[in-house]
Design brief:
The structure holds 2 protein chains of 2 kinds. Chain A is an alpha+beta fold. Chain A has 2 domains: 71 residues; 167 residues, Immunoglobulin-like. Chain A has 4 helices and 10 strands; from the N terminus they run H-H-E-E-E-E-E-E-E-E-E-E-H-H. Chain A starts with 16 loop residues before the first helix and ends in an 11-residue tail after the last helix. Chain B is an all-alpha fold. Chain B contains 19 helices and 4 strands. Chain B has a two-stranded antiparallel sheet. Chain B has a two-stranded antiparallel ribbon with strand order 3-4. Classes of the chains: A alpha+beta, B mainly alpha.
Amino acid sequence: MDYGYGWGLPPAASSYAAQIDSLMWLLHVVMVGIFIIWGVYFSYCLVAYRATNGHRASYHTAGERSSLIPDGLILAFEMWLILAFGIPIWAQIKQRTPPADQALEVNVMGQQFAWNFQYAGPDKAFGRRKVSLVTAANAIGLDDTDPAAKDDIVTINNLHVQVGKPVILHMTSKDVIHSFQVTNFRNKQDLVPGLQTMLWFTPTEVGKYEIGCAQLCGIGHTQMIGNVFVDTPEAYDAWAKEQLQGRVATSAGGSVTPAQAVETSDARGIAGTAPKS
Amino acid sequence: MSESHAHAGEHGHAQPLSFWWKYVFSVDHKVIGIQYMITSFLFLLLGFAMMLLMRYQLATPQPGENFDPEHLGMVRGLIAWLFGEERMPYGFMAPEFYNQLGAMHGTIMIFLGVVPLGVAAFGNFVLPLQIGAEDMAFPRLNMASYWVYFVGGVVMLSSFLAPGGAAQSGWTSYAPLSVTAPPGQTIWLIAMVLIITSSLFGAINFIVTTLNLRAKGMSLGRMPVFCWAQFVTAVLLLLAFPVLEAGAILQLLDRVAGTSFFIPKDMIYGATVFPRAGGGNPLLWQHLFWFLAHPEVYVLLLPAFGIVSEIIATNTRKPLFGYKELVGSIVFIGVLSFVVWAHHMFLSGMRTSLANLFVTTTLIISVPSVAVLTCLLLSLRGARIRFTVPMLFALAFLPMFGIGGLTGLPLGFAPTDLHLHDTFYVIGHFHYVVAPGSLVALIGATYHWFPKMFGRKMNDTLGKIHFWGTVIPMNLIFFPMLIQGMWGMQRRLADPTLQWHNLPVQGWSTVILVGSVVMMAFQIPFLFNFFWSIWNGEKVGENPWEATTLEWACPSPPPHGNFAAPPEVHRGPYEYSVPGHQVDYWPQDEAA
């Protein structure tokens, strides 16, 4: 296994990643700048004012008022950051979503130690979920008697999306708190039992990305791994069609379809089981 | 302990009893302070040892190509044998054991290590001396505080013996994971209630002592910065800790009495609905927890500000730059620290618009911290710097706390926190604040006040070896964490290499392990120096550093009752190099 000594930010792959990256670098450049200014002054003082024979420290300290200037500068810089970047970027990423009719909406249900994804299917309506129907096979408790559930696609640990099309994740958790993290998308959101949270992104690069759980969720936390497959529109359509066929063929609502079963076995995390060390 | 006999005679008690009452069940603030100091150093070592084991796991999470289960090698074999099949199979850490050590490392370092050392140890020993008091306002409460803390610590450690092991839901104990965790969590909660109670006893004592027992002439404006820092810290503890105590009791009820304060409706556990009505909210715990735990960060930090101010004033031989600005900043930090807690919760599912408020308060609180650093830096200008061992630690605090403070910027700023939250960047950031920051200051304080505690100095050469052997490896440990976190490596992973996105920065874990081992090795000269110097160090008089504050106006070590006659204060705390005065220091109690 190759362990690297890399540094920096991982490759960016979402529409807003560049914004966050430039903010990140701006902050770090300023931080390094401040540190160097402090450091140079600090080193100068250590050398210039070291105790030597005959010299006495000066009693008077001048410039107490002008020492407030750096404080003021930093305050002004920070307020500018908040107004120019903080509030707008946060609003764009966390407080608003792209229009739902142009986006792919997916329900995400976290559990120890897997990611369940529910697609609405062609009717664009999510089937009802009932907590009483949850079994090992029907991980999200999809209610088959609901007509909207008939064409829903349910996958474990594998999220397929289209490049360039916004994805809105409506997230919750079955058991404890998890956190959805894809470093390349520069976003993250906790999944909380009893609450609905939201995360959206527009993938910009075709490829396979890793979902890690960022909130300690128990013994298998490390192994709670999923994949985001960012597909071309054609590949995505082919995948969705295949899923849907499998779903109709078995017509056993809510249970994992053969096509999904293949996908599941390819995923590294195994749902609901404690990992062996 | 030969001195015990000499002093016992003065009180005329039977000698065996005297030792117990003098050194164990003492009501003397100085003895209690030293008890706190030694106990918290032991806890710090223990917490460090746990982390060493975890870093060993993180550096080598997987068997290599030449791995042979029959021949584990000396280190791995020893670890496997010591901790057993269940915890360390073949010397590789089971994830549940990793989670236990992680939760306990955080708990021990913060609640049983750094806070007791910064507040209870040095606060207890130094504060009454510096304000010219005979003792704390409530000596028995003071003793109770230590013993409740001690019992709390023992209970905390005993949780490793519980079925399923110690608490394993992180030091933050987020519900509902913590509510459904093995019994160790119950013990954690009980221990926390004890530790918090102990801190509350201490906080009340510190506040009353500072307000009521100051010597004649010791106005608030003449109090050393250290006393101000301790006073503000005590107020923070008094106002913030009850909230966590309540939270801990609620979580305890959730675990043992079937309530559901933090358990939501329809939560599924295993494959069935959790057998509980539900209706609680997991976020409530986070709010209760962080309402304490953010002021807690300043509880860790403010005493360090105070300590560094004292050491710098003493060793620059000039008045501190901007005494009023320093004190004002510390008070301002104290007030503001109550309105920043939710910056730990930007991504928790809390209402997203609240983030803007907490980003603003968080960035504002950075300003007084910058002011403190600026004042301390400018205090060096025009100085006559003596590079004593405590001064080395105080000086090292400045740039390293600087890194800790600066790296808080991208975390406190919500858009960049989206990427950095829950990664090693967070770990690097707060360790730079607490370890190379606070802890380094606290080690400096140990060297600084050791002569007052024991009437002897610690050895300088060993002290300098300890300094370089601590400060350099510390940066090898914590700086790579910033790099790993920036790449997105999450915290709290027993094996980060299972996730391929972590592999490009996994190599740094080897650097961190090397740094940790080296740093641990360099604590040996410190421990040796500490205990050797108690009996064999160079003897010193009452004011070996030629300092101005009142603790240097009584004998070293001060007797029970401290001052021969009640001191009277005539001037501010840092009258160094006053023009026209024949020596370069003018003690506060010296008549004009």
